[in-house]
Amino acid sequence: MNGGGLADRVEVQPPDLRFRLVLGKQLLATISINNPLDNRVAFKIKTTAPKKYVVRPSSGIAEAHSQVNVQVIMQAQKEYPPDFQNCRDKFMIQVTPLESEETLDKDTFNKEVRRDMQEHRLRVIMESPAAPPSPVPEANEGDAEAEGGFKPAAGENQGGMAAAPPAAPAATGASQQEALKLQLERVKREREDLRKKLDEATLQGGAVGSKGKTDSAALKSRVRVVHIILVAIIAFLIGHFTH
């Protein structure tokens, strides 16, 4: 702001024009010209980037003891300017007093004619776009109040991985082991009985006829079957207790 007198009394606000940059959208700011004087004043607004901004109105008259609001519209930007964080755009508001019947003409803002014309300069400040809201509210771990009282659901741990199923009661595991032992002992007893019968049949082989030979072959077959079953059960038990 240059000079004194009029410039010290006609107020131009804000001191800077701030725009929060959003691509593809027009941005709006307002310049307020407050005239507390007893006479009318004329104003005119200029900018260093006329293709970038639209000013409504760009010039006019502020009546005595009145305020005029001027809209500054930044055109929609397709991409971020390379220097938007250090914008060099500026606005200048020229203010000059008018006589009671005077109107605006080509010499109203001529510095050579208007010795009492004052100038206010405003700097443009570009602000970064607002950060998008977080899709997941942040909260301190273990703070139930900050999380709205929610706690991990059953079947999930703090890391989000599925929790391991609870271990089976010890009594159930012991019962299964006892049943398997009993079954193994029963098969062993059957094997021993069959082996005894096979031995007896072998000793009596000389006196036994064709029927005896048939019975002996049947016993041998049964022993082999029982032996296979026994091996399978033992293998099953070894694998079960190993896991």
UniProtKB/TrEMBL annotation:
PROSITE patterns: MSP (PS50202). Its main location: membrane. It is a single-pass type IV membrane protein. InterPro entries: Ig-like_fold, MSP_dom, PapD-like_sf, VAP. It is found in: Membrane. Residues 177-204 form a coiled coil. Residues 126-177 are annotated as: Disordered. The keyword Zinc does not apply. The chain crosses the membrane at residues 223-242. Keywords: Coiled coil, Membrane, Transmembrane, Transmembrane helix. The keyword Membrane applies. Residues 162-171 have a biased composition (Low complexity). Residues 9-127 form the MSP domain. It comes from the Eukaryota. Belongs to the VAMP-associated protein (VAP) (TC 9.B.17) family. This is PapD-like protein. It comes from Dunaliella salina (Green alga).
